[in-house]
Amino acid sequence: MPIVLTPVWSNGVQKLKVTSAPPSKPAHGLLPPALDDNVHAQRCLAQLRSKDKSIEKYIYLNQLKDADHNMFYRLCLANMAEFTPLIYTPTVGDACLQYSQIYRRPEGLFISIKDKGKIGQILRNWPRKEEARISVVTDGSRILGLGDLGVNGMPISIGKLSLYVAGAGIRPESTLPICLDLGTDTQRHLDDPLYLGLRQRRVPMDVMDAFMDEFMEEMAAAFPKLLIQFEDFATDKAFGYLERFRDRHPLFNDDIQGTGAVVLSGFINAAKLASAASGRPLSDHRILLQGLSDDEARERIYLVDSQGLIFDGRGPMAEHKKYFSRKDYNGPPLKDLTEIINYVKPTALLGLSTIKGAFNQSVIETMSALNPRPIIFPLSNPVRLSECEFHEAVEWSQGNVLFASGSPFPEEEFNGRMMYPGQGNNMYIFPGLGLGAILSRASKVTDSMVEASSLGLADALTADERAADLLYPRIERIREISGAIALAVIRAAQKAGVDRSPDLRTKSDAEVLAFVREHMWNPQ
Ligand SMILES: NC(=O)C1=CN([C@@H]2O[C@H](COP(=O)(O)OP(=O)(O)OC[C@H]3O[C@@H](n4cnc5c(N)ncnc54)[C@H](O)[C@@H]3O)[C@@H](O)[C@H]2O)C=CC1
Ligand SMILES: CC(=O)C(=O)O
Ligand SMILES: [Mg+2]
């Protein structure tokens, strides 16, 4: 029986009335005589397409999902390339920025620092008939590249979970979006009369740590089969909470592990194309390669931040930068990106800087002079923070670039040849990784499972996609890809001994794949 949440107001405070509605075959006369399912799908698409602004489309789709989730996901699956930029990046970035203005109705759980001591009680208020199996949890402290948005980060949890349903067939009723409210340090939100979160600055780290300990313990108690995805925590917290909880709970951090996996996958495919063009072996790439020791691989990676090339002699640095800090450079600080490229001579350039224009004409021309097929991945989100645009990369590299960006760009024609931008976004990874972890009942998410998801994705290109120089499969095939990734993840979980579905161990790959497909939810 579907659960219905009705907001009611009492003394200026909103409460939710929770009721169970009978399976709805509306009473005769309530539906128009000629309401046909297929025609209604066309009607919904026409309503969507009649809106000019993407944020209006987002609001429309959000309401459609709430009113008729079968129709929403049916349309989504049939129009993935059109829907993904609306329910996810870049539009979800605008939805977050404007969340306190566009808010309509409850869609997930808000748990605030004021709830400390009674988090378990609040989790049990989640009014779904089905046990939660996957939760995306953010604290809103680094939403895409947009900074600390506080509780305005909720749409990112909702958007990622919509992609779990659309992309991997996770049952909608088993998804749980959560936004933690530990304050915000963004004055604009604190000053906004419509802001939906606590009007206070972020709590100190020791207070947050104690809150997170209680939160994670209560999540495991309330939802014993739950997989947790940490999303868009500011970088230090992202690393810290991944390390703190990863051996105790089934969880992964999408921005660290999902992104690492999707970049590796695109890089493997790009490096094959680049090596074919240059005649240089794969192991020559200056970034990361299979078959090398940790130290040999690390040697090939150079990290640049807002102060330039990161090297030991530069002075104190954040903990997470130390591993890749160069020991072999002792000159004056190298700040300019073109200058750094001329020093390093990289084959690949990855951007996660949130700086629009960081990959300018000089950067791309220098990369192109060094490499017949330069690998250039501007990965920052949303689109307006991308380090460069696809058409710029195509033009400045004379059509030779191997390109993937965090947010989508339109295809480009160069000298009569169509060129397709890859979308190097963790959305290719987390649905399949999550599905594999859930179906194998993994007690934790190991690095080997994340690596398997990456290699599974890299292998998923069809001959046709390879011939078109694609680095990632077409998004329309997301269900098929997620199935292949889930199989790879289940096998890795079994190998690591963290699976708790013994029946799957004795099945062949074809049988496990059939099992995965059978468990994908489909809109009616
Ligand atoms: N494509 C994808 O799947 C993903 C993309 N991202 C995107 O990556 C971006 C960064 O996210 P985080 O790493 O979490 O943020 P962060 O704030 O921790 O890192 C940003 C880094 O950029 C550096 N930086 C700033 N200005 C720079 C400049 N001019 N040149 C070089 N480096 C500069 C900073 O020093 C810092 O190290 C965001 O836009 C986010 O949306 C994040 C996760 C997944
Ligand atoms: C894609 C993603 O997770 C991010 O930009 O944060
Ligand atoms: Mg993220």
UniProtKB/TrEMBL annotation:
UniProt keyword list: Metal-binding, Oxidoreductase
Provide the binding site for (S)-malate: 142, 381, 425
Family matches, as Pfam families: malic, Malic_M
For this record, an example GO cellular component is: mitochondrion
Q: Which family does it belong to?
A: Belongs to the malic enzymes family.
Q: Which PANTHER family match?
A: MALIC ENZYME-RELATED, NADP-DEPENDENT MALIC ENZYME
Name assigned to this protein = Malic enzyme
